Amino acid sequence: MKRAVDKHITLIPYYRNDEASLPWYQDLEVCKQVDNREKPYDLKLLHQMYDYLCANGSCYYIEYNGKLIGDVSLRNSGEIAIVVSKEYQNRHIGRRCVLDMLELAKDKGIKKVKANIYSFNAQSQKMFESVGFSRVSEEWYEKQL
Question: What percent of the chain has pLDDT above 70?
């Protein structure tokens, strides 16, 4: 089921759409931010990642003003992960999506959510802290619900 975040953002349950999603994971800066990878994803790795996220939680595309621009997931373990394509970063889109994932976590009865953020990714650290996450180790942030 779709999740309306606000008048600009809708979260759409994952379906295989390589044309939309592969470009995000071909951007080396985004790959570094998200997975500390120096190489872009190929289709096999992309499918493995999405298959894992869907089998272990809820995974959504982020639709912004009618265009797919990233993805966000909430794993059954309470881990939140988000990717926003570079040209749409720094518009508070990620923040609004994470806030929605916090509501989904509450609905699922999850008491604590967490995010793995690399120590060099100050942009993501700032965003997660802005919605109430606290650093609990060098690369882990948590929030009690």
Answer: 100
Give the CA-trace dihedral at 119, 123, 128, 129, to 10 degrees.
80
- Residues 141 and 132: their CA atoms lie apart, in Å, by 10
What is the distance between the terminal CA atoms of the chain, rounded to a whole angstrom? 23
Question: How confident is the model over 33-91, as pLDDT tens digits?
Answer: 989 999 999 999 999 999 999 999 999 999 999 999 999 999 999 999 999 999 999 99
Determine whether 60 is exposed, middle or buried from the number of CB atoms within 10 Å of its CB (0-12, 13-18, 19+).
buried
In this structure, are strands 9-13 and 57-64 parallel, antiparallel, or unpaired? antiparallel
Of 85, 74, 86, 54, the closest CA to residue 115 belongs to 74
